[in-house]
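JOB MANIFEST
job_type = single_chain_structure
chain_count = 1
residues = 364
[input]
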Amino acid sequence: MNEIDVAVIGGGVAGLASALALAQLGASVCVIEKDARPGRGMSTHNSGVIHAGIYYPQGSLKARLCVEGRPRLYEFCERHGVPHRRCGKLLVASHENEIADLQSLFSRGIANGVTSLQMVDADFVRRREPHVHAVAAVWSPETGIVETEALIGELARLCRERDVALLVGTSVIAANASSHGIELVTPHEAFTAGTVVNAAGLYADDVSAMLGARIFRITPCRGEYAELSPSRRSWVNGLVYPLPHSDGSGLGVHLTPTTWGSVLIGPTARFQTSKDDYEGSRLPLEAFLEPTRALLPGISLMDLQPGGTGIRAKLHGPEERFADFLIERDAGNPDVIQVAGIESPGLTSCLAIGEMVAGLWKRG
């Protein structure tokens, strides 16, 4: 492999979806993934939620690609047998003074094109979720869950069917400008890519600098989870969310049933400097009790058990509320297409992101 049309750095959902869309256009493509198999980073360390598109500012890429990507992802899962469930979500107000904020989110979702949303009362919540406390809620019937590892596996399989070379356990250690694009150097080989897609997740800022492209900063934000004990899993039928954090760091500790039967509680949100510290200074289980009781008042500490962690790749720090996806042909190095800051709703948006990247490549 001396020359290739496109090299995608990063084998998460955004990278694999981009590689698949590019291969479907006839490009020769490789995916370079530093881990031993695709999707071991952010793509499988999250809640596995298929979002509707409620939270994001109107006109943002997050709003547009979420709304475009959601039906595509459902159709993909149905066609390829990826476990998923359109279980719906209740975004709840626990107190009367939260109703105005709830109505604002409802209006934002409608403006973003999520026309299936409904404002509902406490009786509606009680019928769907008898154990959940709420004075009012937004009901989102289009929200669901997906088994992320199965999704990654199917995207990787389809890439291989399209002759995409998946170079796992491989890192780019150097990049040099070439008359035909960018020469990429790995520990095993060197080859030239006409275009490089930077979908490197938490390391997208480092990769961008290596490629001689724009300078930006990824800020890691760790999310930790607990889980409901098996005896309390029946207390939750669908997704239940509080109002999101006012500082923009996350959507709040929420309840997420999984396709394999557990119920996740989380994630929390804490900015940190390390991009790979998943376990240091973990929160005690007691830290999840009050956020869980705000939604499920009958829960005790004995009903909780430890869960996993994930790290979001944010394009803003704790002092800012919002940063959009960065998906564009780089102004400094036009041989690079940036796919950075792909946190939530990146999973929901992945197929729409892939199509956008393929469109950028096709237009040159």
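[summary]
DSSP finds eight helices and 20 strands in the chain.
The mean pLDDT is 96.
exit_status = 0
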